[in-house]
Amino acid sequence: DLPVVMGGHHPTFQDAEWLERGADAVVRREGEITFPELAAAFASGAPLSPVAGVSWRDGEGVHRNPDRPFIKDLDSLPFPRWDLVDFSGYYLYFRKPGRSACVETGRGCEQHCSFCQVGPMWHNTHRFKSPERVIEEMRLLKKNDVTQVFIVDDNYGSSLDTGRQARIYEGMRRENFNFDWG
How would DSSP label each residue in 3-21? Predict the structure, then answer.
């Protein structure tokens, strides 16, 4: 009896398919602002038509509300609540045993590769979290006994971003996190 909501790269571009398969709504692109608005609309029985960045279906067909503008400052997002995570399913043993977590340090890609959906997903933009923000999130992970960190950016390692990356590495060394990371 709960609404099914899809999000991410694939549902963004295949929203009609997911709605035909039974999803009640698709959050296209970023969800941090859109999803809470959508959840509030579902909870109150309000129409979905005012919620930017949502695709939905009714008896008249598929509706695609206008896109929501991208979040300009990724540092303005709240930190993940790592203290609420049950890490028991994230105890991986790649190089050493321990808890694993993923960190997003940026979103997007400025390239125009014909085989990839990352550029179109982010309108060929690339936005980054500051090194200070990334290091603070890693501090939170360390407090939660995480030993392995995986950077999950769409295009980490961009040559346009070497200075910021170097500051992240310097912060990791300065903080002596001793993470295995990839």
Answer: --EEESHHHHHSHHHHHHT
Q: Are 122 and 128 in contact (CB under 8 A)?
A: no
**pLDDT at 95 > cutoff 80:** no
- Name the packing angle between helices 131-143 and 162-175 (round to 10°): 30
Indicate whether 59 pLDDT > 80: yes
**Residue 54 in contact with residue 27, Cβ under 8 Å?**
yes
User: Taking CA 158 as the corner, what is the angle to CA 153 and CA 161, rounded to the nearest 5 degrees?
Assistant: 100
> Residue 136: in which H helix or E strand, if any?
helix 131-143
Q: How far is CA 165 from the centre of its chain?
A: 19
d(CA 117, CA 62): 22
**Do 47 and 33 touch, CB atoms closer than 8 A?**
no
Strand partners, 107: 127
